[in-house]
Amino acid sequence: MGTSDFDLSLFFDVPSNIRISTFTSPAMFRQHLANTFGNHPEDWEMEIAEAMRRQLHDDLLSEEKFNYQTPGKYALIILLLIFI
Predict the structure, then answer these.
(1) b or e along 45-74 (b: 16 or more beta carbons within 10 Å of the residue's beta carbon)?
(2) Which member of 1, 15, 30, 37 has the lowest number of beta carbons within 10 Å of its beta carbon?
(3) DSSP 61
(4) Residues 59, 66: contact at Cβ < 8 Å?
């Protein structure tokens, strides 16, 4: 199979999604936050993104399974990080 320079998200003028997984870096978390909730650089500090990465890792170690792709789960993690 060959490779293509065609990007379906650019064709439809929608942002491409970042898939959240154990390999997601803090920078990717930050970009996903901006894509999901809007670009608020002062709100999406790298410390928050790193804390989200650690939370995903902790959930994995405790055998918790969550869908990290939904805005609701993102909001819940952010609230927990802010108030804990």
Answers:
(1) eeebbebbbebbeeeeeeeeeeebeeeeeb
(2) 1
(3) H
(4) yes
DSSP state of 44: S
What confidence category does residue 3 fall into, taking pLDDT thresholds of 50, 70 and 90? low
**Domain ranges, ordered by start, for the chain:** 20-83
Structure-model confidence comparison of residues 80 and 11, the more confident one: 11
Reading the block at residue 56, the tokens are 């995903």
pLDDT category, 57, cuts 50, 70, 90?
A: confident
Q: What letters, b where the CB count within 10 A reaches 16 and e where it falls short, cover 6-34?
A: eeeeeeeeeeeebebeeebebebbbbbbb
The better pLDDT of the pair 41, 40 is held by 40
